[in-house]
Amino acid sequence: MTAETTLPQTALPQTAAPAEFLDAAATLLGPKGFTTDADVMAPWLTDWRGRYTGRALGLATPATTGEVAELVRLCGKHGVPIVPQGGNSGMSGGATPDTTGQAILLNLRRMDAIRRIDTTGQLAECEAGVILQTLHEAAERVNLRFPLSLGGKGSATVGGLISTNAGGTQVLRHGSMRAQVLGLEAVLADGSVLNQLIPLKKDNRGFDLKQLLIGSEGTLGIVTAATLKLEPAVAARAVLWAGVPSIQDARKLLLHAQAKAAKALEGFEVLPRHSLEAVLDYLPQARSPLEGAHEWHVLIELVADASDAERLPELAETLLVSAFEEGLVEDATIAANETQAEAFWLLRESISPAERAIGPAMQHDISVPVERMADFMDFAVPFFESEFPGTTAVGFGHLGDGNIHFHVLAPAGSDGPSWEAGDGKAISRKVHDLVTQWGGSISAEHGIGQMKRDELARLGDPAALHVLRAVKAALDPQGLLNPGKLI
Fold first, then answer.
1. Counting Cβ atoms within 10 Å, is residue 349 exposed (0-12), middle (13-18) or buried (19+)?
2. Residues 382, 145: Cα–Cα separation, whole Å
3. Is the pLDDT of residue 320 over 80?
4. What's the rounded Cα separation, in Å, for the pair 442 and 263?
5. DSSP 3-state assignment of 103?
6. What is the DSSP letter of 62?
7. 77: number of CA atoms within 13 Å, CB side?
8. 233 contacts 143 by C-beta, under 8 angstroms
9. What average pLDDT is seen over the chain?
């Protein structure tokens, strides 16, 4: 297979639905598990951002791994593409079908069982449809926790998080989903079930197949269950808010916090003055944690388990005092209680909706090497505001792991669709060019989906793209699993 080899494309007729397939699917899954009702399907045909809307032959919601396997075999027999879907909260259109209406949606939300929680081994085995918040609550009940969280925890599912290798606010300490998955169960394109749920610390029987499936966005197999790593519950936390004059100073504060707090450092988020002001306008009851204006703000979270809980307040205070002494912060405070700590985090988590309330923007989920992120921001913000007059460029997010959400807001009064199709598209192309030049990634934690597919093809390493295509062709020779996504 050469680097130029194209993947096979399905070619079902658009004029009539395959009646034999629809009857067989309905018989297999029953009325609870399969529908062609347009009103029932409608909410699942548009992505969370509202940028992509597709059509589907039907909506399948199987209840077991066995049903998923049977359905995949049925789809293979009839040549019907499959678009796997979890909570439909993805950011790149990866769980939305195309407009041909030839595919089925396979939503795993009915597979929502937490099969077991092993308190001794500190792990949970759960099905793909388990909602992240539900997993958090189940772990908390046995004095454990799942150390990955994000703003969409009330809708994001385990399967979707695995399929996109989701990140979140705790990657700095615990890593992305790749680091949390100890075992995996998935249905492959031929309907066979890959069962590697039992976690082994040492296993040299060839490729790590679970890692191949993590981040593959449903193009290589359909994740149906996983064994996930848990951590001891947090016994105490300290949430700090600091004002700094520049992103470079935020970077210095990060290094200082890593040196002083070590493994207690759970999160380190940055946001510019513009983002905080947007949130304060958006949330009438919200208040800035600090007096006065600061060009950049830093949100730091320190945590401790029961063995270190008593020492955490002193650690937090020592961290801030030493930061003041070294001239790293202009002002800072420590949340007095859990209510105030949650209020600090609400400011950070409300940036995206606050921006949407302002107007259209091109949003980019990017990463560059951690040590270069401050320099990248210092270059990129004035560059784009100069190249596209009237725009406002802002970056916020996870400075500690090199992942900044870089947004370019349209000039005031811009018409959203026309601006996005014109200057907006040009902006995104230049952002991706710049990130690539800086040795970074055009997708840090939200996946490629359909939104960045063509940009990955344009900018990706040819050798890496060749391997991606070869693996796809080998595991899904009919090209039925989530076609048109990722590659």
1. middle
2. 41
3. yes
4. 29
5. coil
6. -
7. 13
8. yes
9. 92
Please compute the mean of the pLDDT values over residues 446-455 and round it to a whole number.
92
Euclidean distance between CA atoms 412 and 392, whole angstroms: 10
DSSP 423: I
Three-state SS at 129: coil
Percent of residues, the chain, with pLDDT higher than 70: 97
What 3-state DSSP class applies to 59? strand
How would residue 231 be classed by pLDDT, with cut points 50, 70 and 90?
A: very high
Helix (H, G, I), strand (E, B) or coil at 180: helix
Map residue 419 onto helix, strand or coil.
helix
How many C-beta neighbours within 10 Å does residue 43 have?
9
Residues 6+ apart with CB under 8 A from 186: 193, 194, 213, 221, 222, 223, 224
Q: Do residues 178 and 214 lie in contact, with contact meaning Cβ atoms separated by under 8 Å?
A: yes
153: left (phi over 0), alpha (psi -120 to 50) or beta: alpha
Average pLDDT over residues 428-455: 94
Q: What is the DSSP letter of 420?
A: I
Q: How far is the C-alpha of 252 from the C-alpha of 425, rounded, in Å?
A: 34
Tell me, what DSSP letter sits at residue 415? -
| Rounded-to-integer distance, Cα 481 and Cα 483, Å | 6
Q: Helix (H, G, I), strand (E, B), or coil: what is residue 305?
A: coil
Measured distance CA(325)–CA(474) in Å, rounded: 59
User: Tokens 């034999």 sit at which residue?
Assistant: 20
Dump pLDDT digits (tens) for 386-409: 999 999 999 999 888 888 899 999
Closest CA to 4 of 384, 356, 454, 457: 457
What is the model's pTM?
A: 0.89
Single-letter amino acid code for the residue at 322: S
β-strand pairing of 331-334 with 296-304: unpaired
Tokens representing 397 are 């997010």
pLDDT, tens only, 152-167:
888 899 999 999 998 8
Burial of 452 (0-12, 13-18, 19+ CB in 10 A): buried
Read off the tokens for 40.
């029932």
